[in-house]
Structure to design on (290 residues):
């Protein structure tokens, strides 16, 4: 998407020299550049860098070495000093009848999207020897997640706050850490589980924001839901590819991986229309509801 990105407080997020050198390190390889961006801890540098990375790829200015073994020599993911990360139960409640309550909700959604940028970048650099389209798909996801984050961060500023003003939790990255050794597990449990939960939850959240007459926020969620269907579809595509490659039955394989990695248990109500649009089979939806 060719949408303008937000401009946050420069004094709060200006990159230091080390991270500037890291993010702009000369590389013409998509996967190495994705790792550089994943290690970036400053918000604007990460978001802007993702946009520039995808644009450079679309313009044919980058190479893609699918077989390269790449090692991270910086802590990943790079995280800004704020928000403070706390256990999920310590995150503030989200009352819709106050501006602050809506801001807490928008902040939580922005945090999800910021983590989603990292998850997409991690999927690009970490897993070698996938078909080229796999990396192209996740680069698109990273760019769209950056766009979503910017929409939410901009709206947060309209409400009088900015990203980092409220605590957030770290659990969104836990499955990424658990599945770092196996691309099959990653595809099964991040896009098809964590992101798919967003398909189920978004309509109810949108309704609450609309009821509170925050129509701008509701319209942002419409954009996010539309794009997240595509992101979950990408996860389904590569999960199905890997199951076929390894001669595995998808429904049983997903159940076994969810148990092995202790993935969050799926609870309804489920957005079956969105899940079908994202490529879940009827057999998968039946198993989900059971």
């Amino acid at each position: 998407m060719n949408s303008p990105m937000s401009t946050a407080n420069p004094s709060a997020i200006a990159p230091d020299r080390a991270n500037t050198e890291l993010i702009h390190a000369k590389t013409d390889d998509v996967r190495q550049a994705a790792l550089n961006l994943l290690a970036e801890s400053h918000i604007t540098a990460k978001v802007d860098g993702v946009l520039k990375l995808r644009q450079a790829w679309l313009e044919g200015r980058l190479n893609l070495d699918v077989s390269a073994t790449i090692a991270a020599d910086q802590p990943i993911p790079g995280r800004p000093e704020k928000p403070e990360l706390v256990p999920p139960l310590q995150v503030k409640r989200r009352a819709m009848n106050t501006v602050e309550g809506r801001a807490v909700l928008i902040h939580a959604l922005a945090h999800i999207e910021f983590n989603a940028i990292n998850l997409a970048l991690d999927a690009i650099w970490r897993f070698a020897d996938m078909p080229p389209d796999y990396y192209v798909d996740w680069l698109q996801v990273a760019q769209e997640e950056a766009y979503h984050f910017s929409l939410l961060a901009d709206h947060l500023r309209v409400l009088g706050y900015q990203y980092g003003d409220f605590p957030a939790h770290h659990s969104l990255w836990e499955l990424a850490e658990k599945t770092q050794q196996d691309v099959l597990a990653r595809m099964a449990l991040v896009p098809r589980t964590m992101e798919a939960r967003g398909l189920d939850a978004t309509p109810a959240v949108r309704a609450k924001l609309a009821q509170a007459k925050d129509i701008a926020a509701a319209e942002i969620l419409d954009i996010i839901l539309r794009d997240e269907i595509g992101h979950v579809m990408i996860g389904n595509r590569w999960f199905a590819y890997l199951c076929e490659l390894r001669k595995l039955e998808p429904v049983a394989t997903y159940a076994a991986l969810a148990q092995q990695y202790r993935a969050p248990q799926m609870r309804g109500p489920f957005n079956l229309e969105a899940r079908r649009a994202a490529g879940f089979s009827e057999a998968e939806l039946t198993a989900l509801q059971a």
